Amino acid sequence: MQDEANQIIEYLNINTDKYQGVICKDRDGKIIARIPLCYIVDIINSLRGDNCNLKMAVNQEDDQEAKADSGKPLLSLVPTEIIYEIEKVRRYGVDKYKDPGNWRRVEVERYHQALLRHTLAVWDDVTARDEESGLLHLSHIATNIAFLLELMREEQG
């Protein structure tokens, strides 16, 4: 059972500590709870039954009869904090420029320049904040990369 708990923790990309407990953090990274692995095992045992098959969640490629999702993006692998940080930068930009779609009209080279400026700003201090927005430079980096990836995807059709 412990191996299965470890498999699920790995699958869900959950942080664990040296005591093999699950670490629960808030959006600011502050630890708000530690759940011992033995409790995770108890939770798995309590969920077992005809209506819950946790093995299928770990091995979704195995059974495609109930839900054909093989090959689809497994977005639970993406750390959610990056989404929150990009949203902060986007909200700042929308408040400043009053147009949520204006980023699509900016030349790609300007995103390259902004990406380089923000990257150099965090080179010695990853916690550095942008003077104008007050947001993390890392958040601006993530947003610029998101813009570049989206523009590239649109260009490729």
Overview of this structure, please?
This protein is mainly alpha-helical and 157 residues long. It folds into two domains: 2-68, no CATH class; 81-156, no CATH class. Helix content is 50%, strand content 7%. It contains six helices and two strands; from the N terminus they run αββααααα. The protein has helices at 2-11, 37-47, 54-58, 81-97, 108-122, 137-156; strands at 21-25, 31-36. Strands 1-2 form a two-stranded antiparallel ribbon. A hairpin with a 5-residue loop joins strand 1 (21-25) and strand 2. Helix 1 packs across helix 2 (37-47) and helix 5 packs antiparallel against helix 6. The protein is extended, with a radius of gyration of 21 Å. The N and C termini lie far apart (47 Å). The relative contact order is 0.09.
Write the layout of secondary structure elements.
Elements: H1 2-11, E1 21-25, E2 31-36, H2 37-47, H3 54-58, H4 81-97, H5 108-122, H6 137-156
Antiparallel strand pairs: 1-2
